[in-house]
Amino acid sequence: MIFDKQLIPKNIDDYNSLYNHSITNPEEFWSQVADSFLWKKKWSKVLKYDFSTPKFEWFVDGKLNITENCLDRYVEIHPEKTAIIFEPNYPENETIYISYKELHSKVCSFANVLKNNNIKKGDRVCIYLPMVPELAIAVLACARIGAVHSVVFAGFSSTALSARINDASCKMIITSDGSFRGNKIIDLKSIVDEALNDCDCVDSVIVLNRINSNISLNNNEKWWHEELTKVSDDCPAEIMDSEDSLFILYTSGSTGKPKGMVHSSGGYMVYSSYSFKNVFNYNDNDIYWCTADIGWITGHSYIVYGPLLNGATSIMFEGVPSYPDFGRFWQICEKHKVNQFYTAPTAIRALAKHPLDFVEKYDLSSLKVLGTVGEPINEEAWNWYNENIGKDKCPIVDTWWQTETGGIMITSLANVTKGKPTFATKPMMGIQPVLFDENGSLFNENNKNGILGIKYPWPSIARTIYGDHERYKNVYFSAYPGYYFPGDGAYRDDEGNYRITGRVDDVVIVSGHNLGTAPIEDIINMHPNVIESALVGYPHDIKGNALYAYVILKNQSKKDDIRTEINQLISKTIGPIAKPDKIQFVPGLPKTRSGKIMRRILRKIACGEKSEFGDISTLLNPEIVDEILKVFKNL
Ligand code: PRX
Hints:
Number of helices: 19
Shape: globular
Bound molecules: adenosine-5'-monophosphate-propyl ester
CATH class of the largest domain: Alpha Beta
């Protein structure tokens, strides 16, 4: 273990005292945590910050390279330990085990390929790869030489890809000839070709042969494996300033253009590593699996950096939970004797709809800790996860955080603090959540809903939006001066546990009442004939706003009865105020690739708009927009 024992709470009393220490003496606390890492030069000051600029500097003047902390030091300690287990899309294909020594060698070799292709410290490199080990290798190789990686999820369209490449002026793109996802083969290279028609900044393209597609490459495009034959695996780590950028990762905002969140080297290293150890209670020989894609922040912090910084064994899965059948996750858990399993509520809900046989035929006794991330988890899904996967013996950590925060902010700590269904619960060490009321005033009372703010900086806070510091300031630091504003609502119970109630932009004020859409959707979803629903607000003459429900039904008969029953259910559970004015049955909902409903579009349709939906190319199912509009027209 890299951290001093004193820094790892073992029980609730330890947590309380360590948490108090972390917020009363934050600089001393973070300095103790940061002492656990390899620094080329120690920092002169732990923190300099100014919320008004806004500017945050952690471990000022410190010099380091994050890959020495992920790799070199473990090559000394346990060279043969498996760093990455690669589980391919097709279960019959061979699992690949990559030791720390091998990973170090592969990262250094590929770092030399980058150098050979004229990539230098500070250059931006776009990585558009499926979930294969080379994705992690490319990320770490960039970090090795101080290039700034910008990973774009390999499910994004060419338009979304070119927008991201251009926004960061990437000099290189790393991709593959294709990818395997479930029973589909995706031709990634032609998506890249299309994107590159609009990108003048890209000088070179490195292509991994993943699917043996026999394509021939264009000028200035090179095969990954051929480039490797020209280099050695000796690549000294570039010395980075603690505040030098490590990566850019795009996240969508409430307006169309994505925001390139910029993360630093030193602060991100310290926080992603420390949070990983504590949240998941990772112990030396555990096998840890996060099912996210490295295209998202969860994959950056909790598949690559957090686990490797702790010398852990981290599983990378290329496929999808439904292929070859709905038992794939559990088959992998059994096969690798997974100890910590971290996934999204969307996946849990999707799997819970299928017979339990898919779970029960596998031995899940190795599981010790379960986690969720990305959205609120409803009680039904929580119970299913707890009973059927955790067998009522695994703590569930419901981790609230964001692309912008770099690491987990509010969560229970497995086996240390208590979880509570549907609550993310307590702040991580060093994190100071606060609640504001609708007038923007801070309040300390419990058992009350409010708008979440964070009072004090933490090491992995994003430092800016690439190329648009003004937007960074406006979006995150203007609503409540002196605080970070994440855009979420939260409820605090009388034990100080936080429940995230959803985006504050999903809150609709109906007749002067604040109504969170998520809890109402949960109720609609309880109707036995409902598959899923989404609720948005639309302007109403008398009430100010009214609610519009889009509902997917299992079977289409007796629609009027179902409307009445949904209204009765809501009236009974929340009150008549929460009844939607309109309930529209639809064949599907517009969703992002990470499974989030694109409410922006539903809001526009509810307001009567028929076009001008902004960029919908990043949707998983863009065709659904027209289908919903058709239903709307026929009403
Ligand atoms: O609304 C919160 C929700 O996801 C948002 C952040 O999304 P993204 O940057 O894509 O990062 C997702 C992975 C960290 C938050 O503002 N969210 C995230 N985790 C939770 C959550 N909502 C409720 N409970 C969570 N555990």
